[in-house]
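Readers of this paper often ask what the protein records in our data store actually look like. Such a record has a labelled line for the sequence and another for the backbone structure tokens. The tokens are whole numbers drawn from a learned vocabulary of local backbone shapes. We quote a single record here, exactly as it is kept in our systems:
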Amino acid sequence: MNGATPPYGYRMVKLADDRGNQKGKLEIDESEAEVVRKIFKLYLDGYGYRALAAKLASEEVSKRNGRPFCGKSVENIIVNDVYTGMLRFRGVSFEDAHPAIIPKNLFNEVVRTREARNPDRMPGREQSSPMLFSGLLFCESCGQKLTHERTFKPTRTYTYYSCSSFKGKQISCPSRLRFDAEKLDRFLLDKITDRILTDKNIENIILGLMKLRAELLNQNRSQSLRLHRELMGVKKKVENLVNAVAEGVLPKEIVQDKLKKLREDEERLELELSQGRVIAFPKINVTGQFIEGFREICKNVMFSGDEKKRKTFLKNMIKKIDLTKTTCKVCYDLSRFLVSHTESSSLRDNLVVPTGVEPVLPT
């Protein structure tokens, strides 16, 4: 850490090593560390990066240079595991290398929270919802999501998808949609099968898989080169650490375990390089029978698969569904069927406009 600017929350102190040389070590700056702890706590309380920066500004808390925190500077603190005592040196990580400001379990909780807030991830409430199309249905008139509700009769329970405006008067909506959930699920699944899982779309998916197969075969031919580069990288890290200990930059006690792990990696890579590995990928013949078989697999997942798998399958394929009392528009993206994103612009954001969706109101 010699000469480096310490992260916010720490200051650099000079300590003598075994040879009497002065070396830099991170020490907690309590005044700044309190701000770091507050940032982590407020983030877990629900604050976002910008809201956190605004709150710090309202409390006249600034960065070390006197400038106010911004969303990015708050994010940089939230994602930095240096606050758990982690030290990174020339591509190698060391745990408990300096005093921690944030406990590891708290940092891991923040990591999980960030993942849960990721807009590309299905929200937990949509995963746990009993409704198949939860999070995908929108009222075209007011733009609100359709959520589920239940009404209870003496002989049975009725389940509906309802526009949010149907439940409250805060949002004015001329449609106030309400659909029988079971009937709407069946209608949408039938239309997805008929309009989206067409021979042409499935053929494009298969062509994408064939392209992926070619990519994997090309990767296989260069496997030895990749392993060789990785091996050279590990050898370089070993050399850097050995030199760092010899020069007194890093203490021997925190390097020993890392050196052992790197040498194990070195042996593993040398073994893989000597043996070589072959990636098996079946050749795909695009025939009518294969297309129909592919479609049947998709239908089995959608109509009778595990509930979580059904939702994930639909969420990966369907972007959103806009509904009125008589029409629906399905915006979909089939590129996620592929392991890697290949060119599939012709598959993206297509609109399917079937008609005849009628609301079934409770009697």
The two ends are 73 Å apart (CA to CA). The longest helix spans residues 223-246. The first strand starts at residue 10 and ends at 16.
